[in-house]
Amino acid sequence: MKLSKQFPLNALRVFEAVARLGSFTRAGDELGMTQTAVSYQIKLLEENIGEPLFLRRPRQIELTEAGEHLAPRVSDAFNILIEAMASMRKTTEETLTIHSTATFAQQWLSRYIGSFQLQFPNIAVRLVTSGNIVDFQKEAADVAIRWGRGDWPGLISHRLMKLDYSPMLSPKLAAEMGGIHEPADLLKLFLISAGDSWWAEWFAAAGVKDADLSRYPKSEFGTQILDASIAIAGGGVAMLNPGHFQDDVAAGRLYQPFELTGNDGRDYWLAYPENRRNVPKIRNFRKWLLEKFNVEQA
Question: Does 255 map to a domain?
Fold first, then answer.
């Protein structure tokens, strides 16, 4: 038997209103139904149970013994459902789930998300880091910080930061080899994640012809954070976004030997589903984040 036959929810909803209000007419007004429709739903429920639930008298109805037995249980059941839905709405409304690249999360969000929490103390933040592009249709996510060209169908995107790249290394390592004077000097050192296309693009832009990158292992560490950690430890030269590592440069942990930066057209963006643009928690986070990056808001 189908669940709808065992538990005729529409009829039970009508029964609960009639029993509570003591009137078919008032129940119809509350539910936006005609009196005829209310009577029909009650009849369906009585047929399903096999007993009358109301005594119909002129200008008055009364619950039968079966109706008296059923009414409080139906009322309790609907109250449980109402509380469950309210709890879920509250949880969904108060928790902002952010998907972000690990580098952006550590190098930017971890430093500034506290000010968002202070400004919006009723919104809890859940941060998920991943190198994969989140599918809003399949995963629990409100917004995403992703890198690319901002041309994702069905999403609204705001450019936050240019994802420029340039070689960076430990100042101590540079000093040990007598300094880095020209781009070709970098080839005397170990290039971290040398298989990254940014290396070939940067050397070409710097005028270094025939940079033989094939002699380096094609290691991939997944995030700029790990590449930067290896460079800070003196393990080689990393191709990094200087904007992410300004504090490390200021503290003398990293050194950018050349002002030349590359950009392959892929930058950091805030993205979220177009049909959720007016959800309060998304609207508040968007406003806060774009103000932090001095991005003009429409």
Answer: no
pLDDT digits (tens, 9 = 90+) for 76-114: 888 787 766 666 665 555 889 999 998 899 889 999 999
pLDDT 10s digits, 219-241 = 787 789 999 999 999 999 999 99
63, containing H or E segment: strand 60-63
pTM above 0.85, yes or no: no
Rounded-to-integer distance, Cα 206 and Cα 62, Å: 90
Question: Does a structural domain hold residue 298?
Answer: no
Q: 130: buried, middle or exposed (CB in 10 Å: 19+, 13-18, 0-12)?
A: middle
The span from the CA of 222 to the CA of 226, in Å, is 7
Query: Up-side HSE of residue 145: CA atoms within 13 Å toward CB?
Result: 25
The 10 Å CB-count burial string (b at 16+, else e) for 26-57 is ebbeebebeeeebbebbeebbeeeeeebbeee
Q: Which domain does 145 fall in, by range?
A: 94-163+266-292
Is residue 230 a part of any domain in this protein?
yes
